[in-house]
Amino acid sequence: MAAGLAGVVSTRPADLDTHGRDENHLDSVPPRAVVFAETRDDVVTTMRWAGRHNAALIPFGAGTSAEGHVVPLGGEVSLDVSRMNRLVALCPEDFRAVVQPGLTRNGLNTRAREFGLTFPVDPGADASLGGMAATNASGTTTIRYGGMRANTLALEVVLASGDVLRLGRPVRKSSSGYDLRDLFIGSAGTLGVITELTVALHPVPEEIAVLRAFFPDVAAAVAGAFAAVGTGLPIARLELLDEITAGLLAQDVPGLVPDAPALFVELHSSTAAGLATELDIAHRALLEAGASTVGTATAQAEREAIWEARHRLFWSIRRAFPGRRYLITDTAVPLSAIVEHAQVISELRADLGLDVVTTGHVGDGNIHTVVAVAEGQDAPAALFSDELVRHALRVGGTCTGEHGIGVSKRQYLAAEHGDAALWMARVKGLFDPGNVLNPGKVVGPDLLSDALAAR
User: Fold this and answer.
1) Is residue 180 part of a domain?
2) Cross-referenced InterPro entries, in alphabetical order (predicted)?
3) Pairwise CA distance, residues 328 & 371, whole Å
4) Between β-strands 57-60 and 33-36, what pairing exists: parallel, antiparallel or unpaired?
5) In this predicted model, what pLDDT tens digit does every residue of 220-257 receive, in sequence order?
6) pTM for the predicted model, two decimal places
7) 392 vs 338: CA distance, rounded Å
8) Final residue of a domain: which of 265, 285, 311?
């Protein structure tokens, strides 16, 4: 099999196991083999080999996907680009960097901070930048800085044919032609393999503080979030924790009130005086909205402990509910529907007898739930996820705010997008007519078959 392939080819059981799973609840399915690409030419050669042999490929970065994007569905070869991890160029005067896809966000930030700059997209995991672009990742800082589409200036991609495309220019805006760059961002490796990215950098804020506000219930906490946004302050992070989440994190976060819904509100400023003014405005708004108490964290260690605990929430859940299977959802709804959506979560949790942890990037309407699925609870857990997604769609939301469609959300593509889903499948057929790239992901086989038959 290695004949005609470029890079290092492995069929070692340990490599196959690692490349057969991600952070999703799906069972591990080992790929046929793993190709470790080290250069763009390795990717080109591998793509052309796959086309000649009708062999399916799954691009693999850091394996941190939450929706099964890298999990094989049967006989695929994993194309691992993690060794393509160079910082190609860092241009402080242009506030941008050119990176290979295997470089992680923490790896980039280590270098960028030497110049007082940062790459702000923060999905929690130390994901690869190529994988973040492929899934249009976002996270806690989206309310201020946007997600990957907002912070990716240009891409280099290799198509299924082996052709190389440069998409976008290293500028902040352009009205030139169709925006193919944004088409590939969020395509989850189904249209092409990203081999280089140009990303935007931002100045590291001089002054940072985090407010911790506690409320009698989730509805009041959401009202507090609306009040904070309504101040017009440039909020950098706005995170909602339900009472269960607060209880899990209380042992790791100084000053957190156990079993009380909470908001974390992070503010950035260029001066201490400016930050003090912003804190005063936000503090008063939260109290007027019904917060019982509001605390402030300004010390770097205390601030970092807050966000580290939030990012490690999944591991706190595993510690609290050991030996379970964990079903993750990440619906997003219009801000006006957040309270209703949270009520649906609460009712489903009680009616189905499930252990559910809820948190969310409430500033952009993105709500995360984790169901700790005990033995015999597979059916009610699946019903919980389905009912929650369908409620999100009914109120004008989406089945996935940032994790992507992957495998788990394919059945909702047509329900969310209507006839546009068929056009998505046609786009897939245009760029990858042999269905070589990550088959079965995003666009399901039935939808793709219908699209190809209609050509």
Assistant:
1) yes
2) FAD-bd_oxidored_4_C, FAD-bd_PCMH, FAD-bd_PCMH-like_sf, FAD-bd_PCMH_sub2, FAD-linked_Oxase-like_C, Oxid_FAD_bind_N, Vanillyl_alc_oxidase_C-sub2
3) 6
4) unpaired
5) 999 999 999 999 999 999 999 999 999 999 888 877 88
6) 0.92
7) 9
8) 311
